[in-house]
């Protein structure tokens, strides 16, 4: 029996590693890769179970594609299966970004032309993400208005607390406006986790959210402060990896942990690696405190996703059929679009587009991504090379 369990875990690890080194294109593309590999090719789960799992992960804060991967691992090999699936999918990009961060620190690359190019790549990538998300998440005047409120509030009061307040208020407004929306799906899914274990995970999730800021104040240890910032960012992000950008920027740049230029250079580099965009945290951690900081940052930012997926799997059927919960989520998703637009202006646009030639280059990169449908790694390489050429002009 143990041998079969080990074989299963090894199989999960090998498959997830292969996905971790080949899954370019962001969370939506990752879900496509997962469907092809886990549902169509290996038949580890049926279409209905996969759709249910994706719906749950879209509902939760955190990196949706990573949570889907964890959930598939759990359904295939229990909690250890989820851990193994997470490691395989996440570690390739974590290692790559930690090495990039060490190179930035060692060789003082902050003023390099190709770093400037990566910052312009960030402009194109986030603009592309905003358009795609706005079409899906703000289709009516009510949600467009919520998004506009989020833009104005987060631009005028640029703090992490503002973003949390905007998300909570938008959830309440969505609850009031959309609470009569009916869900058509009445099917029931089965997940291999007990409600008792799930409750412990949820209690740990909320407990850490409360305890870590207290420990931060009491101890004044830098690694606890860093763990708290990454954990809170991972806990409050609705809408995927791009939305973690403003939260991380507010946590680390004003406090002087790293410069805005170094921050945006890493964000551009994160587009070049496969796997979840949340691994950008590994870059920040490594810039601040070497490879150890990169590992601490990775654990801290993904831990909320882990606790939430394990804590909600058994309760998902009740939640997803509740129209009031769905209404609150619709309000939150609209606010996410506004928060992303705010981040697009500052810090991304204000620190990257300085001259007409910068805007022209950003337009080319955006077209490569949006109209010509080129892979993100091609856009990143073009950005780095173009940045070097622009620096010579």
Automatic annotation (TrEMBL):
Protein's cellular compartments: Cell membrane
Main location: membrane
Membrane topology designation: Multi-pass membrane protein
Transmembrane segment boundaries: 12-33, 82-102, 114-134, 146-177, 197-218, 295-316, 328-348, 360-390
Keyword Oxidoreductase: no
Protein family according to the UniProt entry: Belongs to the chromate ion transporter (CHR) (TC 2.A.51) family.
Protein name: Chromate transporter
Organism: Metabacillus herbersteinensis
């Amino acid at each position: 029996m143990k041998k079969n369990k080990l074989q299963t875990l090894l199989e999960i690890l090998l498959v997830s590693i292969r996905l971790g080194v080949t899954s370019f294109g962001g969370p939506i593309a990752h879900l496509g890769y997962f469907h092809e590999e886990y549902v169509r090719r290996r038949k580890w789960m049926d279409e209905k179970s996969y759709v249910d799992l994706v719906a749950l992960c879209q509902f939760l804060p955190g990196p949706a594609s990573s949570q889907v991967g964890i959930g598939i691992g759990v359904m295939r090999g229990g909690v250890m299966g989820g851990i193994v699936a997470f490691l395989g999918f996440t570690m390739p990009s974590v290692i790559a970004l930690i090495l990039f961060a060490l190179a930035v620190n060692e060789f003082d690359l902050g003023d390099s032309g190709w770093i400037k190019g990566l910052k312009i790549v960030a402009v194109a990538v986030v603009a592309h993400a905003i358009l795609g998300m706005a079409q899906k998440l703000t289709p009516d005047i009510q949600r467009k208005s919520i998004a506009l409120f989020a833009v104005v509030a987060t631009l005028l009061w640029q703090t992490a607390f503002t973003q949390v307040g905007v998300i909570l208020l938008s959830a309440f407004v969505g609850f009031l406006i959309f609470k009569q929306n009916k869900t058509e799906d009445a099917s029931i899914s089965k997940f291999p986790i007990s409600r008792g274990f799930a409750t412990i995970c949820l209690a740990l999730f909320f407990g850490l959210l409360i305890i870590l800021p207290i420990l931060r104040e009491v101890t004044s240890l830098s690694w606890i402060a860093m763990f708290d910032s990454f954990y809170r960012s991972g806990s409050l992000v609705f809408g995927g990896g791009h939305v973690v950008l403003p939260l991380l920027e507010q946590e680390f740049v004003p406090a002087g942990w790293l410069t805005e230029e170094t921050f945006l250079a890493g964000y551009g580099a994160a587009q070049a690696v496969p796997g979840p965009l949340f691994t950008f945290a590994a870059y920040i951690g490594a810039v601040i405190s070497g490879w150890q900081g990169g590992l601490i940052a990775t654990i801290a930012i993904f831990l909320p996703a882990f606790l939430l997926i394990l804590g909600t799997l058994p309760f998902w059927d009740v939640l997803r059929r509740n129209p009031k919960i769905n209404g609150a989520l619709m309000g939150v998703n609209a606010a996410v679009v506004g928060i992303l637009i705010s981040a697009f202006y500052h810090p991304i646009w204000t620190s990257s587009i300085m001259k007409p030639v910068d805007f022209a280059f950003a337009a080319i990169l955006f077209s490569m991504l949006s109209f010509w449908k080129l892979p993100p790694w091609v856009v990143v390489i073009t950005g780095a090379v173009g940045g070097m050429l622009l620096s010579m002009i």
